Amino acid sequence: MIAADLLRHHLFPDFELLGGSGGLNRELSSVSVIDAPDVDRWMRGGEFLIGSGYIFREDPEGFAPFLRRVEEKGIAALGIKLDRYHHQLPGSMVAESDSLNLPLVAIPLNYRWTDVIEGVQAFLFQEKRRGDQAQEDLGSFWEEGLDLRRLLSGFALRLGLPLVVQSTQLGLNHQFLPDGRIEGADQVQAFLKTPVVQEKGLPRRGQILENLELRNSGVLQWCAVYRFVADTPLTLHLGLSAGEQTPSTRQERMVLRALTLLRAAALEVATLSDRWVVKKEKFFEGLCLEIYNDPEMVRANLEELGVALPRRGCIVVASSSREAEPPRWVPPEAVFSHRLGDQWTGLLPLPDPDGAKRDWGQKAERAGVHLALGGTVQTPLEISRSYQEAKRTSNWLREFSLPPGVYLHEELSLYALLDSLARLPEARGVYRRYWEPLLAEPTGGRRSLPLRELAKALIQTDFNARLCAQNLHLHYNTVRNHLEDLEGLLDLDLSNPHHRLGLILASHIHGSFQKRGGEG
Protein backbone atom coordinates (compact mmCIF):
# COMPACT_ATOMS: atom_id res chain seq x y z
CA MET A 1 0.00 0.00 0.00
CA ILE A 2 1.22 3.50 -0.80
CA ALA A 3 0.08 6.89 0.50
CA ALA A 4 -1.91 7.52 -2.70
CA ASP A 5 -4.22 4.61 -1.76
CA LEU A 6 -5.57 6.73 1.11
CA LEU A 7 -7.34 8.87 -1.49
CA ARG A 8 -9.08 5.97 -3.22
CA HIS A 9 -12.83 6.56 -3.53
CA HIS A 10 -13.88 3.20 -2.06
CA LEU A 11 -11.56 3.54 0.96
CA PHE A 12 -11.80 7.13 2.25
CA PRO A 13 -13.85 9.04 -0.34
CA ASP A 14 -13.80 12.39 1.49
CA PHE A 15 -10.14 12.55 2.50
CA GLU A 16 -8.52 15.64 0.95
CA LEU A 17 -4.84 16.04 0.03
CA LEU A 18 -3.64 19.45 1.28
CA GLY A 19 0.04 19.20 0.34
CA GLY A 20 3.00 16.90 -0.29
CA SER A 21 1.69 15.37 -3.53
CA GLY A 22 5.27 14.54 -4.52
CA GLY A 23 5.38 11.82 -1.86
CA LEU A 24 2.21 9.89 -2.71
CA ASN A 25 4.30 6.88 -3.69
CA ARG A 26 5.63 6.42 -0.12
CA GLU A 27 5.12 2.90 1.22
CA LEU A 28 2.49 2.69 3.98
CA SER A 29 2.57 -0.23 6.41
CA SER A 30 0.57 0.81 9.52
CA VAL A 31 -1.42 3.54 11.31
CA SER A 32 -0.40 5.41 14.45
CA VAL A 33 -2.19 8.13 16.45
CA ILE A 34 -0.53 11.34 17.69
CA ASP A 35 -0.69 11.18 21.49
CA ALA A 36 2.18 13.48 22.53
CA PRO A 37 4.46 16.21 21.09
CA ASP A 38 7.42 13.77 21.02
CA VAL A 39 5.52 10.98 19.26
CA ASP A 40 8.29 11.00 16.60
CA ARG A 41 10.53 9.16 19.09
CA TRP A 42 8.40 6.05 18.67
CA MET A 43 8.07 6.03 14.88
CA ARG A 44 9.68 3.15 12.94
CA GLY A 45 8.78 4.33 9.41
CA GLY A 46 5.91 3.65 7.02
CA GLU A 47 3.19 4.92 9.40
CA PHE A 48 0.13 6.92 8.46
CA LEU A 49 0.27 9.27 11.45
CA ILE A 50 -3.14 10.69 12.38
CA GLY A 51 -4.37 13.16 15.01
CA SER A 52 -6.72 16.05 15.82
CA GLY A 53 -3.98 18.66 16.37
CA TYR A 54 -4.85 18.93 20.06
CA ILE A 55 -1.20 19.37 21.10
CA PHE A 56 -0.95 22.44 18.83
CA ARG A 57 -4.33 24.00 19.64
CA GLU A 58 -2.62 27.01 21.29
CA ASP A 59 0.33 27.15 18.84
CA PRO A 60 -0.70 26.22 15.26
CA GLU A 61 2.69 27.33 13.94
CA GLY A 62 4.25 24.47 15.92
CA PHE A 63 2.93 22.11 13.24
CA ALA A 64 5.76 22.85 10.77
CA PRO A 65 8.74 21.81 12.97
CA PHE A 66 6.73 18.77 14.13
CA LEU A 67 6.28 17.85 10.47
CA ARG A 68 10.04 17.94 9.91
CA ARG A 69 10.70 15.68 12.89
CA VAL A 70 8.23 12.96 11.89
CA GLU A 71 9.41 13.10 8.26
CA GLU A 72 12.93 12.30 9.40
CA LYS A 73 11.55 9.06 10.88
CA GLY A 74 10.18 8.07 7.46
CA ILE A 75 6.44 8.20 8.04
CA ALA A 76 4.30 7.66 4.91
CA ALA A 77 1.76 10.46 5.46
CA LEU A 78 0.25 12.74 8.10
CA GLY A 79 -3.53 13.12 8.58
CA ILE A 80 -5.17 15.84 10.70
CA LYS A 81 -8.87 15.80 11.64
CA LEU A 82 -10.33 19.24 10.91
CA ASP A 83 -13.06 21.10 12.84
CA ARG A 84 -12.03 19.46 16.12
CA TYR A 85 -9.39 21.97 17.21
CA HIS A 86 -8.46 23.55 13.85
CA HIS A 87 -10.84 24.61 11.11
CA GLN A 88 -7.94 24.82 8.67
CA LEU A 89 -4.21 24.17 8.90
CA PRO A 90 -1.66 27.02 8.80
CA GLY A 91 -0.12 27.86 5.44
CA SER A 92 3.36 27.23 6.84
CA MET A 93 2.46 23.59 7.47
CA VAL A 94 1.11 23.06 3.96
CA ALA A 95 4.21 24.71 2.47
CA GLU A 96 6.47 22.52 4.63
CA SER A 97 4.69 19.35 3.51
CA ASP A 98 5.23 20.37 -0.13
CA SER A 99 8.93 21.03 0.44
CA LEU A 100 9.35 17.68 2.24
CA ASN A 101 7.18 15.76 -0.25
CA LEU A 102 5.27 14.42 2.76
CA PRO A 103 1.55 13.89 2.00
CA LEU A 104 -0.63 16.00 4.30
CA VAL A 105 -4.25 14.78 4.44
CA ALA A 106 -7.36 16.51 5.84
CA ILE A 107 -9.59 14.01 7.68
CA PRO A 108 -13.31 14.97 8.09
CA LEU A 109 -14.64 15.40 11.61
CA ASN A 110 -17.04 12.45 11.49
CA TYR A 111 -14.30 9.81 11.23
CA ARG A 112 -13.40 7.81 14.31
CA TRP A 113 -9.80 6.67 14.62
CA THR A 114 -11.00 3.07 14.51
CA ASP A 115 -12.61 3.77 11.11
CA VAL A 116 -9.26 4.90 9.71
CA ILE A 117 -7.23 2.12 11.33
CA GLU A 118 -9.64 -0.65 10.27
CA GLY A 119 -9.86 0.75 6.74
CA VAL A 120 -6.08 0.74 6.28
CA GLN A 121 -5.64 -2.67 7.89
CA ALA A 122 -8.36 -4.17 5.68
CA PHE A 123 -6.65 -2.76 2.59
CA LEU A 124 -3.28 -4.21 3.67
CA PHE A 125 -4.91 -7.58 4.34
CA GLN A 126 -6.55 -7.62 0.91
CA GLU A 127 -3.21 -6.89 -0.74
CA LYS A 128 -1.77 -10.03 0.83
CA ARG A 129 -4.64 -12.16 -0.51
CA ARG A 130 -4.36 -10.99 -4.09
CA GLY A 131 -3.86 -13.72 -6.64
CA ASP A 132 -5.85 -16.39 -8.41
CA GLN A 133 -8.54 -16.49 -5.73
CA ALA A 134 -9.08 -12.74 -6.07
CA GLN A 135 -9.52 -13.10 -9.85
CA GLU A 136 -12.05 -15.90 -9.31
CA ASP A 137 -13.99 -13.82 -6.79
CA LEU A 138 -14.01 -10.85 -9.17
CA GLY A 139 -15.47 -12.91 -12.00
CA SER A 140 -18.19 -14.28 -9.74
CA PHE A 141 -18.85 -10.77 -8.47
CA TRP A 142 -19.53 -9.41 -11.97
CA GLU A 143 -21.64 -12.40 -13.03
CA GLU A 144 -23.93 -11.97 -10.04
CA GLY A 145 -24.14 -8.24 -10.76
CA LEU A 146 -26.11 -9.04 -13.92
CA ASP A 147 -29.10 -10.02 -11.77
CA LEU A 148 -29.69 -7.44 -9.03
CA ARG A 149 -32.07 -9.58 -6.98
CA ARG A 150 -29.73 -12.53 -7.14
CA LEU A 151 -26.84 -10.28 -6.18
CA LEU A 152 -28.68 -8.84 -3.15
CA SER A 153 -29.86 -12.29 -2.11
CA GLY A 154 -26.22 -13.39 -2.23
CA PHE A 155 -25.23 -10.45 -0.04
CA ALA A 156 -27.86 -11.40 2.55
CA LEU A 157 -26.62 -15.01 2.47
CA ARG A 158 -22.96 -13.98 2.89
CA LEU A 159 -23.78 -11.55 5.69
CA GLY A 160 -26.22 -13.87 7.43
CA LEU A 161 -28.48 -10.83 7.97
CA PRO A 162 -31.72 -9.50 6.42
CA LEU A 163 -31.56 -6.65 3.88
CA VAL A 164 -34.40 -4.30 2.99
CA VAL A 165 -33.75 -2.47 -0.30
CA GLN A 166 -35.86 0.29 -1.87
CA SER A 167 -35.18 1.90 -5.25
CA THR A 168 -38.01 3.16 -7.44
CA GLN A 169 -35.65 3.55 -10.40
CA LEU A 170 -34.52 -0.08 -10.21
CA GLY A 171 -37.93 -1.52 -9.30
CA LEU A 172 -36.68 -2.75 -5.92
CA ASN A 173 -38.94 -2.80 -2.87
CA HIS A 174 -37.92 -6.11 -1.35
CA GLN A 175 -36.61 -7.81 1.76
CA PHE A 176 -33.79 -10.30 1.22
CA LEU A 177 -33.45 -12.92 3.94
CA PRO A 178 -30.35 -14.98 4.82
CA ASP A 179 -32.13 -18.23 3.95
CA GLY A 180 -32.53 -17.14 0.32
CA ARG A 181 -36.15 -15.99 0.48
CA ILE A 182 -37.08 -12.70 -1.20
CA GLU A 183 -40.15 -10.94 0.23
CA GLY A 184 -42.16 -8.19 -1.46
CA ALA A 185 -43.64 -4.78 -0.71
CA ASP A 186 -46.06 -5.92 2.03
CA GLN A 187 -43.26 -7.28 4.20
CA VAL A 188 -41.13 -4.19 3.50
CA GLN A 189 -43.91 -1.82 4.58
CA ALA A 190 -44.57 -3.91 7.68
CA PHE A 191 -40.90 -3.54 8.59
CA LEU A 192 -40.85 0.22 7.91
CA LYS A 193 -43.93 0.77 10.08
CA THR A 194 -42.22 -0.63 13.17
CA PRO A 195 -41.54 2.34 15.49
CA VAL A 196 -38.04 3.80 15.69
CA VAL A 197 -37.29 4.42 19.37
CA GLN A 198 -33.71 5.69 18.97
CA GLU A 199 -31.49 7.00 16.18
CA LYS A 200 -27.72 7.55 15.91
CA GLY A 201 -25.54 9.02 13.17
CA LEU A 202 -22.66 7.15 11.52
CA PRO A 203 -19.73 8.58 9.52
CA ARG A 204 -20.70 9.61 6.02
CA ARG A 205 -19.22 7.67 3.08
CA GLY A 206 -19.00 10.14 0.20
CA GLN A 207 -22.54 10.52 -1.15
CA ILE A 208 -23.84 7.68 1.03
CA LEU A 209 -25.47 8.73 4.32
CA GLU A 210 -25.54 6.28 7.22
CA ASN A 211 -27.35 6.11 10.54
CA LEU A 212 -28.48 3.56 13.09
CA GLU A 213 -32.11 2.93 14.07
CA LEU A 214 -33.33 0.97 17.08
CA ARG A 215 -36.66 -0.51 15.98
CA ASN A 216 -39.28 -2.09 18.22
CA SER A 217 -41.14 -4.92 16.50
CA GLY A 218 -41.86 -6.66 19.77
CA VAL A 219 -38.12 -7.25 20.06
CA LEU A 220 -35.62 -4.38 20.05
CA GLN A 221 -33.25 -4.62 17.07
CA TRP A 222 -30.65 -2.21 15.71
CA CYS A 223 -30.61 -1.57 11.96
CA ALA A 224 -27.92 0.18 9.93
CA VAL A 225 -29.53 2.44 7.32
CA TYR A 226 -27.70 3.53 4.15
CA ARG A 227 -29.16 6.19 1.85
CA PHE A 228 -27.69 7.34 -1.42
CA VAL A 229 -28.14 11.07 -2.05
CA ALA A 230 -29.63 11.45 -5.52
CA ASP A 231 -32.77 12.64 -7.29
CA THR A 232 -34.11 9.09 -7.19
CA PRO A 233 -33.82 7.70 -3.65
CA LEU A 234 -32.07 4.43 -2.82
CA THR A 235 -32.29 3.10 0.73
CA LEU A 236 -30.86 -0.08 2.26
CA HIS A 237 -31.63 -1.33 5.78
CA LEU A 238 -29.26 -3.92 7.27
CA GLY A 239 -30.74 -5.72 10.29
CA LEU A 240 -28.00 -6.37 12.85
CA SER A 241 -27.66 -9.50 14.97
CA ALA A 242 -28.90 -9.56 18.56
CA GLY A 243 -26.48 -7.69 20.80
CA GLU A 244 -24.86 -5.75 17.94
CA GLN A 245 -25.29 -1.98 17.86
CA THR A 246 -23.01 -1.06 14.92
CA PRO A 247 -22.09 -2.91 11.72
CA SER A 248 -18.65 -4.45 11.39
CA THR A 249 -16.10 -3.24 8.85
CA ARG A 250 -16.74 -6.32 6.68
CA GLN A 251 -20.50 -5.78 6.74
CA GLU A 252 -20.12 -2.12 5.83
CA ARG A 253 -17.71 -2.93 3.00
CA MET A 254 -20.11 -5.44 1.46
CA VAL A 255 -23.12 -3.10 1.81
CA LEU A 256 -21.21 -0.21 0.26
CA ARG A 257 -20.21 -2.46 -2.64
CA ALA A 258 -23.86 -3.35 -3.21
CA LEU A 259 -24.87 0.32 -3.14
CA THR A 260 -22.08 1.21 -5.55
CA LEU A 261 -23.28 -1.38 -8.04
CA LEU A 262 -26.93 -0.36 -7.72
CA ARG A 263 -26.31 3.32 -8.24
CA ALA A 264 -23.03 3.60 -10.14
CA ALA A 265 -24.50 6.16 -12.52
CA ALA A 266 -25.89 8.26 -9.67
CA LEU A 267 -22.53 8.15 -7.88
CA GLU A 268 -20.83 9.41 -11.03
CA VAL A 269 -23.28 12.32 -11.29
CA ALA A 270 -22.86 13.13 -7.60
CA THR A 271 -19.06 13.11 -7.94
CA LEU A 272 -19.30 15.79 -10.63
CA SER A 273 -21.80 17.92 -8.71
CA ASP A 274 -21.17 21.35 -7.19
CA ARG A 275 -18.66 20.90 -4.35
CA TRP A 276 -20.05 23.91 -2.48
CA VAL A 277 -23.56 22.43 -2.44
CA VAL A 278 -22.24 19.05 -1.27
CA LYS A 279 -20.17 20.67 1.50
CA LYS A 280 -23.15 22.74 2.66
CA GLU A 281 -25.41 19.68 2.84
CA LYS A 282 -22.73 17.66 4.61
CA PHE A 283 -22.21 20.40 7.21
CA PHE A 284 -25.97 20.61 7.84
CA GLU A 285 -26.13 16.84 8.24
CA GLY A 286 -23.31 17.06 10.81
CA LEU A 287 -25.23 19.69 12.78
CA CYS A 288 -28.37 17.54 12.77
CA LEU A 289 -26.52 14.44 13.97
CA GLU A 290 -24.60 16.41 16.64
CA ILE A 291 -21.20 15.67 15.13
CA TYR A 292 -20.12 19.28 15.79
CA ASN A 293 -19.80 20.23 19.48
CA ASP A 294 -17.40 23.19 19.23
CA PRO A 295 -19.17 26.54 18.64
CA GLU A 296 -15.98 28.04 17.17
CA MET A 297 -15.76 25.33 14.50
CA VAL A 298 -19.43 25.82 13.66
CA ARG A 299 -18.93 29.58 13.35
CA ALA A 300 -15.93 29.11 11.05
CA ASN A 301 -17.89 26.79 8.75
CA LEU A 302 -20.88 29.16 8.62
CA GLU A 303 -18.60 32.04 7.63
CA GLU A 304 -16.87 29.95 4.98
CA LEU A 305 -20.21 28.87 3.50
CA GLY A 306 -21.61 32.42 3.73
CA VAL A 307 -24.68 31.26 5.67
CA ALA A 308 -26.44 33.38 8.32
CA LEU A 309 -28.70 31.43 10.68
CA PRO A 310 -32.12 32.89 11.52
CA ARG A 311 -32.58 34.37 14.99
CA ARG A 312 -35.46 31.98 15.54
CA GLY A 313 -35.99 28.87 13.44
CA CYS A 314 -36.76 25.17 13.57
CA ILE A 315 -36.00 21.91 11.80
CA VAL A 316 -38.73 20.69 9.44
CA VAL A 317 -38.92 17.10 8.18
CA ALA A 318 -41.19 16.72 5.13
CA SER A 319 -42.47 13.38 3.86
CA SER A 320 -45.17 12.31 1.43
CA SER A 321 -48.36 10.65 2.61
CA ARG A 322 -47.77 8.26 -0.30
CA GLU A 323 -45.28 5.64 0.85
CA ALA A 324 -41.81 5.50 -0.76
CA GLU A 325 -42.42 8.76 -2.64
CA PRO A 326 -40.52 12.03 -2.07
CA PRO A 327 -42.64 15.05 -0.99
CA ARG A 328 -44.13 17.07 -3.85
CA TRP A 329 -43.88 20.35 -1.96
CA VAL A 330 -41.57 21.66 0.76
CA PRO A 331 -41.56 25.04 2.55
CA PRO A 332 -39.52 27.73 0.77
CA GLU A 333 -36.67 29.85 2.17
CA ALA A 334 -34.75 27.01 3.83
CA VAL A 335 -31.36 28.13 5.14
CA PHE A 336 -30.07 24.53 4.96
CA SER A 337 -31.68 21.45 3.45
CA HIS A 338 -30.90 17.93 2.34
CA ARG A 339 -32.76 14.77 1.34
CA LEU A 340 -32.46 11.43 3.08
CA GLY A 341 -34.22 8.77 1.05
CA ASP A 342 -37.83 9.89 0.60
CA GLN A 343 -37.62 12.57 3.32
CA TRP A 344 -36.62 16.23 3.03
CA THR A 345 -35.06 17.98 6.03
CA GLY A 346 -34.56 21.74 6.28
CA LEU A 347 -33.76 24.55 8.70
CA LEU A 348 -36.28 27.36 8.27
CA PRO A 349 -36.98 30.72 9.91
CA LEU A 350 -39.94 30.31 12.26
CA PRO A 351 -40.85 33.51 14.13
CA ASP A 352 -44.43 32.27 14.70
CA PRO A 353 -45.28 28.51 14.85
CA ASP A 354 -49.03 29.18 14.65
CA GLY A 355 -48.44 31.36 11.60
CA ALA A 356 -46.39 28.61 9.97
CA LYS A 357 -49.20 26.11 10.55
CA ARG A 358 -51.63 28.52 8.93
CA ASP A 359 -49.39 29.47 5.99
CA TRP A 360 -48.02 26.00 5.23
CA GLY A 361 -51.03 23.92 6.27
CA GLN A 362 -53.22 24.26 3.18
CA LYS A 363 -50.31 23.81 0.76
CA ALA A 364 -49.16 20.68 2.62
CA GLU A 365 -52.69 19.24 2.62
CA ARG A 366 -53.14 19.87 -1.12
CA ALA A 367 -49.76 18.32 -1.93
CA GLY A 368 -50.32 15.33 0.36
CA VAL A 369 -47.31 16.21 2.52
CA HIS A 370 -46.63 15.75 6.23
CA LEU A 371 -44.55 18.52 7.82
CA ALA A 372 -43.04 17.57 11.19
CA LEU A 373 -41.67 20.58 13.12
CA GLY A 374 -39.06 20.30 15.87
CA GLY A 375 -38.58 22.78 18.70
CA THR A 376 -37.24 26.30 18.38
CA VAL A 377 -33.62 26.82 17.26
CA GLN A 378 -31.82 29.97 18.38
CA THR A 379 -28.19 28.74 18.36
CA PRO A 380 -26.41 26.31 15.98
CA LEU A 381 -25.93 23.68 18.67
CA GLU A 382 -29.73 23.50 19.18
CA ILE A 383 -30.19 22.18 15.64
CA SER A 384 -29.55 18.58 16.71
CA ARG A 385 -32.21 18.71 19.43
CA SER A 386 -34.77 20.22 17.03
CA TYR A 387 -33.88 17.58 14.41
CA GLN A 388 -34.41 14.70 16.86
CA GLU A 389 -37.79 16.18 17.83
CA ALA A 390 -38.83 16.57 14.20
CA LYS A 391 -37.78 12.97 13.46
CA ARG A 392 -39.81 11.67 16.42
CA THR A 393 -42.79 13.71 15.23
CA SER A 394 -42.40 12.27 11.73
CA ASN A 395 -42.35 8.73 13.15
CA TRP A 396 -45.52 9.46 15.17
CA LEU A 397 -47.24 10.74 12.03
CA ARG A 398 -46.54 7.43 10.33
CA GLU A 399 -47.52 5.41 13.39
CA PHE A 400 -50.81 7.23 13.98
CA SER A 401 -51.68 7.48 10.23
CA LEU A 402 -52.58 11.17 10.58
CA PRO A 403 -53.72 13.19 7.53
CA PRO A 404 -51.34 15.53 5.61
CA GLY A 405 -50.64 18.86 7.28
CA VAL A 406 -48.33 20.63 9.73
CA TYR A 407 -47.59 19.06 13.12
CA LEU A 408 -45.58 20.54 16.00
CA HIS A 409 -43.53 18.30 18.27
CA GLU A 410 -45.01 19.62 21.51
CA GLU A 411 -48.53 18.96 20.25
CA LEU A 412 -47.89 15.46 18.96
CA SER A 413 -45.85 14.47 22.03
CA LEU A 414 -49.06 14.79 24.10
CA TYR A 415 -50.87 12.69 21.50
CA ALA A 416 -48.14 10.03 21.77
CA LEU A 417 -48.35 10.12 25.57
CA LEU A 418 -52.09 9.52 25.49
CA ASP A 419 -51.62 6.73 22.95
CA SER A 420 -49.14 5.01 25.26
CA LEU A 421 -51.65 4.93 28.13
CA ALA A 422 -53.07 1.64 26.89
CA ARG A 423 -49.77 -0.07 27.75
CA LEU A 424 -50.05 0.78 31.45
CA PRO A 425 -51.41 -1.92 33.81
CA GLU A 426 -53.94 0.58 35.22
CA ALA A 427 -55.40 1.23 31.76
CA ARG A 428 -57.62 -1.84 31.79
CA GLY A 429 -59.35 -0.75 34.99
CA VAL A 430 -60.03 2.75 33.66
CA TYR A 431 -61.31 1.27 30.40
CA ARG A 432 -63.70 -1.14 32.12
CA ARG A 433 -64.95 1.55 34.50
CA TYR A 434 -65.59 4.37 32.01
CA TRP A 435 -65.94 2.89 28.52
CA GLU A 436 -66.77 -0.81 28.44
CA PRO A 437 -70.41 -0.25 29.56
CA LEU A 438 -70.90 2.01 26.53
CA LEU A 439 -69.94 -0.83 24.19
CA ALA A 440 -72.31 -3.23 25.93
CA GLU A 441 -75.24 -0.79 25.62
CA PRO A 442 -78.11 -2.39 23.61
CA THR A 443 -78.91 -0.78 20.25
CA GLY A 444 -82.27 0.78 19.44
CA GLY A 445 -84.57 2.29 22.07
CA ARG A 446 -85.72 5.88 22.40
CA ARG A 447 -82.32 7.51 21.94
CA SER A 448 -81.39 9.00 18.58
CA LEU A 449 -77.70 7.96 18.85
CA PRO A 450 -75.60 5.52 20.92
CA LEU A 451 -74.24 6.89 24.17
CA ARG A 452 -70.65 6.11 23.11
CA GLU A 453 -71.06 8.54 20.15
CA LEU A 454 -72.44 11.13 22.57
CA ALA A 455 -69.43 10.61 24.84
CA LYS A 456 -67.02 11.14 21.93
CA ALA A 457 -68.78 14.34 20.84
CA LEU A 458 -68.86 15.59 24.44
CA ILE A 459 -65.09 15.08 24.83
CA GLN A 460 -64.40 16.84 21.51
CA THR A 461 -66.33 19.93 22.68
CA ASP A 462 -64.66 20.01 26.13
CA PHE A 463 -67.94 18.98 27.81
CA ASN A 464 -69.88 21.94 26.40
CA ALA A 465 -73.42 20.56 26.10
CA ARG A 466 -74.73 23.33 23.80
CA LEU A 467 -71.80 23.03 21.38
CA CYS A 468 -72.14 19.26 21.52
CA ALA A 469 -75.83 19.57 20.52
CA GLN A 470 -74.90 21.84 17.59
CA ASN A 471 -72.24 19.43 16.32
CA LEU A 472 -74.64 16.47 16.59
CA HIS A 473 -77.51 18.47 15.00
CA LEU A 474 -79.76 17.64 17.93
CA HIS A 475 -81.95 19.78 20.15
CA TYR A 476 -80.25 20.95 23.34
CA ASN A 477 -82.92 19.35 25.56
CA THR A 478 -82.49 16.04 23.75
CA VAL A 479 -78.77 16.09 24.46
CA ARG A 480 -79.43 17.00 28.11
CA ASN A 481 -81.67 13.94 28.45
CA HIS A 482 -79.05 11.73 26.83
CA LEU A 483 -76.40 13.09 29.19
CA GLU A 484 -78.50 12.01 32.16
CA ASP A 485 -78.65 8.51 30.64
CA LEU A 486 -74.85 8.59 30.21
CA GLU A 487 -74.32 9.54 33.86
CA GLY A 488 -76.68 6.78 34.96
CA LEU A 489 -75.08 4.08 32.81
CA LEU A 490 -71.52 4.91 33.90
CA ASP A 491 -72.42 5.99 37.45
CA LEU A 492 -70.58 9.28 37.14
CA ASP A 493 -71.14 12.99 37.63
CA LEU A 494 -70.14 15.07 34.58
CA SER A 495 -69.61 18.10 36.80
CA ASN A 496 -66.91 16.18 38.66
CA PRO A 497 -63.48 16.92 37.05
CA HIS A 498 -62.13 13.51 38.11
CA HIS A 499 -64.98 11.73 36.33
CA ARG A 500 -64.42 13.88 33.22
CA LEU A 501 -60.72 13.00 33.19
CA GLY A 502 -61.56 9.31 33.57
CA LEU A 503 -63.91 9.46 30.57
CA ILE A 504 -61.27 11.27 28.45
CA LEU A 505 -58.56 8.76 29.31
CA ALA A 506 -60.90 5.84 28.67
CA SER A 507 -61.68 7.26 25.22
CA HIS A 508 -57.99 7.41 24.31
CA ILE A 509 -57.37 3.92 25.70
CA HIS A 510 -60.27 2.63 23.60
CA GLY A 511 -58.71 4.17 20.49
CA SER A 512 -55.35 2.55 21.26
CA PHE A 513 -57.00 -0.84 21.80
CA GLN A 514 -58.76 -0.53 18.45
CA LYS A 515 -55.57 0.45 16.62
CA ARG A 516 -53.70 -2.53 18.06
CA GLY A 517 -56.56 -4.90 17.29
CA GLY A 518 -56.90 -5.82 20.95
CA GLU A 519 -59.56 -5.28 23.54
CA GLY A 520 -62.30 -2.88 22.51
TrEMBL record:
What PANTHER family does UniProt report for this protein, alphabetically?
CARBOHYDRATE DIACID REGULATOR, DNA-BINDING TRANSCRIPTIONAL ACTIVATOR ADER
Recorded hits in InterPro entries, A to Z, give: CdaR-like_regulators, PucR_C-HTH_dom, PucR_C-HTH_sf, PucR_dom
Q: Domain Purine catabolism PurC-like: where?
A: 5-122
The domain of life for this entry's organism is Bacteria
**What protein name is recorded for this chain?**
Transcriptional regulator, CdaR
| Segments forming domain PucR C-terminal helix-turn-helix | 451-508
